[in-house]
Structure formats: C-alpha cells, structure tokens
Amino acid sequence: MLGWVKKGDGFTVTVGPFVANVMPKGDGRWTWEIFADAARSSQATGIGSSKGAVQTAVEQYIKRSGRV
User: Fold this and answer.
1) Is the overall model pTM greater than 0.85, yes or no?
2) SS3 for 47?
C-alpha cells in the first residue's frame, strides 16, 4: 500500500520516479494520472468508479513498471 497524501479534493503519491494524482470528477467517478521522471505530460491515465479502484489501478501500474 502506498502512502497517499490529501491534496485539495484528491490525493497524490510519489514513488521512485513516479508522481500519481487521483481526483474526483464530480459525477461519482474518479480520474488518475501518472507522471514519470518529471515529465509535463502524463505517462498513463484512467477513470474508475471509486477512489479505491483508481488507487489500486495506480499501485498496480507502478508495481508492474519494474522501475521501483
């Protein structure tokens, strides 16, 4: 489990070269985005039905990247 930190309405986490943000969309869904190596554009993004679902997707992406 990653150490998520509250940031505004959403949450953020930094793991190795990755910075991930999770934000509510306002319609009950949540978005996620992952940036790597201080890039300006995201490396991966997605939408999920709950905060837990998108946090799990982010954690799995980071674990499977092989860079952490």
Assistant:
1) yes
2) strand
